[in-house]
Amino acid sequence: MSLISSLPFLPSDGSVPTLPPNPLADWFEAFFDRSVRPDFFKKMDFAEPLGDPGWFGPDSPVWHVHSNMPVMFFGLSCAAFMENLDPNIAWMGYDHSRIVERVDGVPTGRLDPDGARVRFAHSLAFFTATAYGPTQTAERAARAVRAMHHTIKGTRPDGVAYDADSPEWLRWNYATVVWGIASAHERYHARPLDDIDDYYRAFVRVGEALGGTDLPASKGEVLECLEEALPRLAVTPIAASRTWPALKEGMPAPQQPLFWLLDWAEKDLLPTWGQKLLFYRPPNPIRVRARRQLLWTLLNGLHATTGPMREFRQSQARAAGVLGDVPETTAPIGADEPMDRRAVEVTF
To answer: What's the whole-model pTM score?
Structure first.
């Protein structure tokens, strides 16, 4: 049985799959229609053209991994956690990211809730479009992110220059992202892949589309790439401010238990050397199992209750029963014009 044929809500007549009546699913769709889709999916068509398999095709491990949006997005949060251990990336985010609050253009170091929402929506749009969107939608999303990266250059407070186009940065950034998504899938997906290297090999196309070269293509190669960076990693004030207990500063009390669990789970997923860098010591095995089971239940319960995103169901219908050819490579051809944040947000 193929991965895609085992997924729920896929009609045999090729029509757009619909979900059974479900108040929570309806609320979730309404929230996305109100808060996410109008601003960040407005130029992304997942239903057309019929027969377009996108970059990977419906039977690919990438479709399977990314179809569970809660687990996939938790993996992205783990990737961001890992990324911030690189001082270059930490300062790139501080200087350029919408997540950081700014007063008269000057970063305050505090979280900008609206900026965090924008970052969430951009990440979701990009990893949705490139995973199972049609070819043109995936290419446009990658082109926009590449063009934005061309503008992210600067100097850290210690005088070290950073550049989001550097091959070293692209390789490290790619490794953190694919590690986060794949590791979260292995631990928390209800039906994890039998061979996670299938995902690592396939996902290289996304890194190539962003301009990466010589990218690691297996779990072992990715872990080696991450550990090779250890001599330059550090817990900067930026990284420290985004981990517990500093993370709870100003956070409403009802939200704190959930974010504490997520912060713990991110540290729990790190390689041993990453845990040591953060002075993390795991609790006894019984508590570890209980916490992992709780998060597993929350993530998969959310996915089971809300069902797959509308964009995924449209993609199922678009590619159903069609054996289309996927591209041999997604590496960019020619140079991009730089795009600032405003231009990127218009593109998405």
So the answer is: 0.86
